[in-house]
Amino acid sequence: MNNSDYNKAEKAVNETENSLKNAASDAKWKISDLADKARDYINEKRNNDEEASQEDWLDKVKANVSDAWEDIKDKADDAWEKTKDAAEDVKAEWKKKTN
Fold first, then answer.
1. Exposed (0-12), middle (13-18) or buried (19+): which is 3, by Cβ within 10 Å?
2. What segment(s) does the record annotate as region Disordered (predicted)?
């Protein structure tokens, strides 16, 4: 197996790593933003003369986390397929050279 085959495999792994890092950093609400979002929620309820509740707030957070998880899962699935395809290419090249 020559260096270009190894380079392809390494590139696929690096792309997977970068894709997963980007997916995690693209999550809609970062932990540091939750306090601001909570204040906004309380103020919105106050302005609408409605009662703010922890349960309602947690439902909003849960929905957001669920959306973020779906985004991360989609990117992770895509990264997995790319890496798997690159690994199969390297394996095929290896078989050609050893047969």
1. exposed
2. 1-26
